[in-house]
Design goal:
Blueprint (H helix, E strand, L loop, with lengths): L1 H30 L3 E5 L9 H4 L20 E3 L6 E3 L2 E3 L3 E10 L2 E10 L5 E5 L3 E4 L3 E2 H7 L4 E4 L11 E3 L2 E4 L7 E6 L4 E5 L5 H6 L2 E6 L3 E4 L2 E2 L16 E8 L2 E7 L11 H10 L4 E5 L7 E3 L2 E2 L14 E2 L1 E5 L1
Antiparallel strand pairs: 1-8, 2-3, 3-4, 4-5, 5-6, 6-19, 7-24, 9-23, 10-21, 10-24, 11-12, 13-14, 13-15, 16-17, 16-20, 18-19, 18-20, 21-22
Length: about 325
């Protein structure tokens, strides 16, 4: 009888160990273990240090200041670009960053004017599409020589939702009731519902990028979120990231701080109202919270935080950038 109970006890222990190990593996496989499905070289990646300093591109290091010039300006000998602490300008790209104080929150706005939509780009962390493939926004921005970057939709945190980057379809699994931002080849923006159109059809219509997070904040100049529609986390004041278009080749990147004593954060409706005040014709909410990050010329502009106690970047799966 004693031997029977011992065997039963041992079997129970073994079963528990196996169950715990399997559960731990599933958690690690879902949220931690990196799985690269496809390597994706950066668009127009330069092949040498000389080429990386060519016209319209940002070099890996900041230009040294010339004492004979304004101490707040730097001029690249290779590109002819004029760079200051909060602006960049060359013959194709103009960026001006301003800081605003609204809703008891610090909000950072990058006003962007381009000669062509080709300078509005996206990039995957570590040049790879996959599961749990992440890097800090600043690291990915440096990897692609971005002048300006914000975090993207963090596609890797979701199992569903369209993923189209640079005219390539990576995921076509529909996320019901999801609103996506479509950036077309001509640089125009559109808002679509995944249940109403397939990813293949979007490609046929000229979709270059599809970001799947949301919701849409502004459509055709009209705010498309409502206070009564905000539930759960959306009702809370949080760090936010948003992208908008004012007119042809005129874009705005917006990132707000939040969860700190200095910055309360924004609701989606407050973010939409702020984007409307910037004359955004279409605006879209990207991943926020601890992911909300803006990087300019290699420096982090805002104060990213997950818990409000530590100012620290979160690693994410993708960025939207200018370069």
């Amino acid at each position: 009888m004693i031997s029977f109970f011992k065997r039963k006890y041992v079997c129970a222990v073994i079963f528990s160990v196996v169950l715990i190990s399997f559960t731990l593996f599933m958690v690690l496989d879902t949220f931690v273990i990196e799985k690269i499905y496809q390597t994706v070289p950066p668009i127009n990646q330069e092949t040498s240090e000389t080429e990386s300093g060519s016209e319209g591109k940002q070099s890996d290091t900041k230009p040294e200041k010339n004492d004979s010039e304004n101490e707040n300006e730097s001029q690249s000998e290779n590109s002819g670009a004029v760079l200051t602490e909060n602006s960049y300008k060359d013959e194709n790209i103009s960026i001006t960053i301003t800081t605003h104080r609204e809703y008891n929150t610090e909000i950072y706005v990058a006003d962007i004017k381009l000669s062509s939509p080709e300078y509005l780009k996206t990039a995957f962390a570590k040049n790879a599409y996959g599961r749990n493939v992440t890097a800090k926004t600043s690291s990915t921005a440096k990897n692609v020589n971005a002048i300006l970057a914000i975090n993207g939709d963090y596609y890797g945190a979701q199992e569903k939702g369209y993923v189209i980057r640079n005219n390539v379809l990576y995921r076509d699994t529909v996320s019901r009731d999801n609103e996506d931002l479509v950036i077309y080849n001509d640089g125009s923006f559109g808002i679509i519902r995944e249940t109403e159109i397939s990813a293949d059809e979007l490609l046929k219509q000229g979709a270059r990028e599809v970001l799947s997070f949301g919701p849409a904040l502004i459509e055709n100049g009209v705010i498309s979120v409502d206070k009564n529609d905000e539930v759960g986390q959306a009702m809370a004041s949080n760090p936010r990231t948003a992208i908008g278009i004012v007119e042809e080749n005129h874009y705005i990147f917006v990132v707000s701080d939040g969860r700190t004593r200095e910055s309360e954060g924004l609701t989606l409706l407050e973010l939409a109202k702020f984007m409307q005040s910037l004359s955004a014709n279409t605006a879209y909410n990207l991943d926020g919270g601890g992911s909300a990050t803006m990087v300019f010329n290699g420096d982090i502009v805002n104060k990213p935080t997950t818990n409000g106690k530590t100012i620290k970047e979160r690693s994410v799966s993708d960025i939207v950038y200018i370069g």
